[in-house]
Each structure stands twice: as C-alpha cells, then as structure tokens.
Backbone:
C-alpha cells in the first residue's frame, strides 16, 4: 500500500503497537520533522532520523561499562543505579514503536578536560533534545521521552543523592537503558568510528522515544 505523501515514516500495522495516546497511528509527518529540525538547529542538532524501535540493540554488557570503569556510576541522577534497571528499560522501550535519532558534532580542546566549553556544549545538546521532546508533546506526541548522551551536565556537580535541582530537565542516558549504541547505529546503517585523538571532532547522539 503506498505511503501517504505527508508521512515520511510509518510502520506497518504488524510492527505498530496498539495506541492509547492522542495520536492515531505510528508516523511522523514531514511538517513535524521539519519543525523539530528547525528547533534542533538552534541547539546544534544536525539531523533527526526516525526509526522503528525494533532496530534498538540491547546488551547487558553496557551496564557493566557503567558499573565498572565510569566515574559517573552512583554519582548522577541520569546514570545507574538511579535509572531504571535494564529489564525495566527494555519493558519501557517495548511500549514504543517509533523513535528519533538526533545527531550533532562536538569538538573540544580535550575530550577528557571537564572545562566550561565542553560542559556548555553538552548542556546545549541536552537542552535541545528536551526542548524538541516538549515541542513533540505539544503536537500530541504525549509519550515522547528523551534519552540523552553522557551524564547530565546541567549542574557542575550533580546533587545526587540529594534532590535533583532541575527535575524537569532530568533524563536518563542512552547507556543507562542498556542500549548498545554502536550496535543500534549499525542496525540503522550508520557508520561511525571511535575518536582516537581527544581533540578530534566526534558525533553526539541523543534519542527520543516517540510513539
Ligand atoms: S540537573 Fe543537576 S542535580 Fe539534576 S541530574 Fe542533572 S546534574 Fe544532577
């Protein structure tokens, strides 16, 4: 059956989960994608790609990387163990049929240097993602929910375990949902590489679970 011209992404009925939201069907139109892309540009988001959630690749090993080897484990509301467990995360994602991949490019003088410029860029992408999520909510995508990259940088030091200072902006990281980012990008046919030089520009990915 041909796709309606205005729909740029629509799942087949068999892939679409039963909807209980304001929106009928599981699609995003060109006009909505255009308007959120415009909004994204204000925050350095270069592209927004819709995809079916069957393309998500999960891995329990992702949680290992959080638990062992990441200094943010147990220090941020956006990271484990403050975030949903991997089984809860899979359950949550299974309630969605469509997601968006937001991509930007970040370059800092040194990736490992936690200076104001690096943090400023992270905050910009973070706020951009949450702002697009809000715009989608206002357009009737009431299930829209962001998964962000890196640990929350909205505060220089996270208040965890004390109450979050900006709960309206707080979102979990992609990794905290046990999502294998590289595997997911491969499933989407997107080539990426590890930035070996701390000064090298690198891609920055965030996601919005949509419908
Ligand atoms: S807004 Fe501040 S307190 Fe809340 S999760 Fe982010 S860094 Fe932590």
Residues:
């Amino acid at each position: 059956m041909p796709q309606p011209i205005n729909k740029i992404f629509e799942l087949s009925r068999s892939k679409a989960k039963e909807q209980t939201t304001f929106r009928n069907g599981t699609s995003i139109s060109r006009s909505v994608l255009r308007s959120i892309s415009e909004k994204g540009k204000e925050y350095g988001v270069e592209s927004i790609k819709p995809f079916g959630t069957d393309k998500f690749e999960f891995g329990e090993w992702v949680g290992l990387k959080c638990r062992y080897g990441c200094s943010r484990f147990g220090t941020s509301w956006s990271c484990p163990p403050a975030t949903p467990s991997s089984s809860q995360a899979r359950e949550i994602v299974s309630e969605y049929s469509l997601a968006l991949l937001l991509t930007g490019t970040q370059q800092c003088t040194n990736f490992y240097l936690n200076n104001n410029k690096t943090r400023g860029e992270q905050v910009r992408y973070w706020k951009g993602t949450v702002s697009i999520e809000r715009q989608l909510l206002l357009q009737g995508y009431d299930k829209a929910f962001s998964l962000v990259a890196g640990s929350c940088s909205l505060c220089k030091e996270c208040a965890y375990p004390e109450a979050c200072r900006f709960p309206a902006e707080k979102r979990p990281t992609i990794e905290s949902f046990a999502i294998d980012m590289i595997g997911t990008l491969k499933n989407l046919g997107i080539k990426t590489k590890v930035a070996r030089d701390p000064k090298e520009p690198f891609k920055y990915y965030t996601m919005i679970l949509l419908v």
Summary: The CA atoms of residues 51 and 152 lie 25 Å apart. The radius of gyration is 17 Å. Strands lie at 7-10, 27-29, 47-52, 98-106, 145-147, 202-209.
